[in-house]
Design goal:
- By secondary structure, this protein is an alpha/beta fold.
- About 50% of the residues lie in helices and about 20% in strands.
Length: about 200
């Protein structure tokens, strides 16, 4: 079974940029690492079920549908994980739905995936608000700084609960403006620390 880390961050924190830098670093260091985006895999499954959605519209589906697709995605991630020494699962600790805040990785999925590390990518709320305004490719919620602060705190609380449940540590990495390479290096070092 490969090593698996969950890398999370609220929308607009720059997680995708850091993970792209991490992929480059891993390639340069000949480190066998793959990144799988949970939402993308869920969308692939929805496509197979005959439903075409933008990945940001998944949260508008019924909770029953989301639960079903989440579980199928965990199975698919486990299938793909065997091909690599280290797997990064790129996801969110929670999702806003019409029913309320919903765990991105409920207990049943944590038991399936068995992560050895949780990494939270964070930055200042003002930076997140600015990034959300300029991201034209995603269907981002525009939020006040106070709402973003709440989301950061809720993510930390959910990560802490996941850590208690799994016994895996939580590492918080700051993605400062213009320092995504340093954030990626910090992430690579965190990953390597659980292998050695």
């Amino acid at each position: 079974m490969p090593y698996l880390a969950v890398v999370t961050g609220i929308p607009g924190v720059g997680k995708t940029t850091v993970l792209n830098e991490l992929t480059d670093l891993a390639r340069q260091n000949k480190f066998d690492l793959a990144v799988l985006n949970y939402g993308t895999i869920m969308n692939e499954i929805m496509h197979d079920l005959g439903k075409e959605l933008h990945r940001d519209d998944m949260r508008a589906q019924t909770l029953e549908m989301q639960r079903k697709v989440q579980e199928l995605a965990a199975n698919e991630i486990n299938n793909r994980a065997a091909q690599h020494k280290f797997l990064i699962v790129d996801t969110h600790m929670f999702v806003r739905t019409s029913s309320g805040l919903w765990a991105g990785l409920p207990q049943n999925l944590l038991q399936k995936l068995r992560p050895q590390l949780f990494v939270m990518i964070e930055t200042d709320p003002e930076q997140i608000a600015d990034r959300r305004k300029t991201d034209s490719e995603r269907h981002r919620d525009q939020s006040l700084s106070s709402e973003i602060t709440f989301d950061l705190e809720w993510s930390r609380a959910t990560a802490a609960a996941s850590a208690v449940s799994t016994g895996a540590p939580v590492k918080i990495i700051k993605n400062e403006p213009g320092k995504q390479k340093q954030a990626a290096l910090d992430l690579l070092q965190a990953i390597q620390s659980i292998i050695t």
